[in-house]
């Protein structure tokens, strides 16, 4: 049974887009995934995104995706929202992944804008609604034009919000003006998908975060959002400023690379990356240590 949610916060407020741990030989590390999921929920996450970009979804098989969701549900599904990434640039494949996620018990779906093939807005609308029709789970859209090549326009958000199961958006567009209009006009629950903009997006109506840095600073993110919701904007701003070195450091290169390096430094499950991703260099890890320490992260 999924944890309690409200229409305003359908997936909670603080979610981490979890890495997929692998064993030394590159196989799926389900035990490690369960230990990491437990650690992240113990730290204060309301939910976890499984099989997202930071979970190396482009290089895991459909069977691995199902196994990973099952394992995480077994570990934390009674106390955290387990949201399965099912978006691809192939609508039929996304439908199959959505149905698979529902069968294994996921609490919700994350559906990214189709990438590479650059569909028009009508194509986006049909893609998202068709995937939402395929399973009886709440859907979080994922707008990240830097990766997909195509933004979801405000007018499209308004149309998509009419679908009863499309309830939220993960915003990695990096445009506070367009976010403001889309939040106001669509009524979707808005989640920051760009850690540097966590606090700014709250200020224009977002309800929470889908974070990468949550792997290492979930307690700070929890305190930040709780302070903001309680009206203590000064405290929220102080935490935002404290975390600036972490926000910067974790994205000096691809987030999954630095996240797995940071988890390894803390003795938490991570493992190698699958090609074409590569491990951080010694120089990158040295810089990461400096960045994390500057933000108060204990290694």
Let me know the average pLDDT: 97
In helices, the fraction of residues equals 40-55%
SS content category: alpha/beta
Task: Give the strand order, joined by hyphens, for the main sheet.
Answer: 1-2-3-4-5-6-7-8
Number of strands: 8
How far is it from the N-terminal to the C-terminal residue, by CA?
35 Å
- Low-confidence segments, ≥5 residues, pLDDT <50? none
Shape: globular
CA radius of gyration: 18 Å
Strand content: 5-15%
Biggest β-sheet strands, sense, barrel: 8 strands, parallel, barrel
Element order: H for helix, E for strand: EHEHEHEHEHHEHEHEHHHH
Count of discrete alpha- or pi-helical segments spanning 4 or more residues: 12
What does this 3D model show about the protein?
With 299 residues, the chain is an alpha/beta fold. 47% of the residues lie in helices and 12% in strands. The protein has twelve helices and eight strands. The chain has an eight-stranded parallel beta barrel, surrounded by five helices. Helix 2 runs parallel beside helix 3 (91-104) and helix 6 runs parallel beside helix 7. The model has no long low-confidence stretch (mean pLDDT 97).
